[in-house]
Amino acid sequence: MNIFRLSGDVCHLVAIIILFLKIWRSKSCAGISGKSQMLFALVFTTRYLDLFTSFISIYNTVMKVVYLVLAYATISLIYFRFRNSYNSESDSFRVEFLLVPVAGLSFLENYAFTPLEILWTFSIYLESVAILPQLFMITKTGEAESITTHYLFFLGLYRALYLANWVWRYHVEGFFDQIAVVSGVVQTIFYCDFFYLYFTRVLKGSGKMSLPMPV
């Protein structure tokens, strides 16, 4: 454990809590992609199956359980409790275009051809693209509420800090996880335009962040 990974975990948790509280307090999931949240829940489910097979630390176990509980609690708010506010028409990204290639790649590129290892690899690849339905939805509607952009900012910051974590571990421990690093770089790239808009518009006090509408 180093400061970059710890900070990344905190940012990840903050992002998830921000989103959950936003939906709960406003009693609305408007502007939130249920498809992205389903993908993230699938990421956590396939990655944390080792909860039943191994114990690393109390911190590790607690964080995994919290991520899982919050992920499925958020989904329940979107698709059940506040489903009347969910905009399914705008949340129209074709997730099969992500799931099929990711599933195929996880079988081709992994560290061991075992069920748990393939599922872990699948989760790493899927996490790198799971935010795309949300970004697509924002682009399609043309704007995002500031609280939603705060969620995306902390989610992107979490990935950036994890890249710093991999660099630190490589220089200090000589450890290099090619799958995690490459997937993390891809995911961070998706956030680059968003980061620019976040710093230049949202932090200047605008209630919403406007984006170019698709042609």
Radius of gyration in whole Å, from Cα?
A: 17 Å
- Could you say how many structural domains there are in total? 1
Low-confidence stretches: none
Which overall shape is indicated by the principal axes computed on the Cα atoms?
globular
Q: How far is the first residue's CA from the last residue's CA?
A: 46 Å
SS class: mainly alpha
Q: State the helix count.
A: 8
String of helices and strands: HHHHHHEHHE
User: Which percent range describes the beta-strand content?
Assistant: under 5%
Report the biggest beta sheet as strand number plus sense, adding barrel if it closes.
2 strands, antiparallel
Quote the average pLDDT.
Answer: 88
Let me know the number of strands. Answer: 2
The largest sheet has its strands arranged as 1-2
User: What helical percentage do the residues reach?
Assistant: over 70%
Subcellular location: Cytoplasmic vesicle, COPI-coated vesicle membrane; Endoplasmic reticulum membrane; Golgi apparatus membrane
InterPro entries: ER_ret_rcpt (IPR000133)
GO cellular component, one term: endoplasmic reticulum membrane
Organism: Onychostoma macrolepis
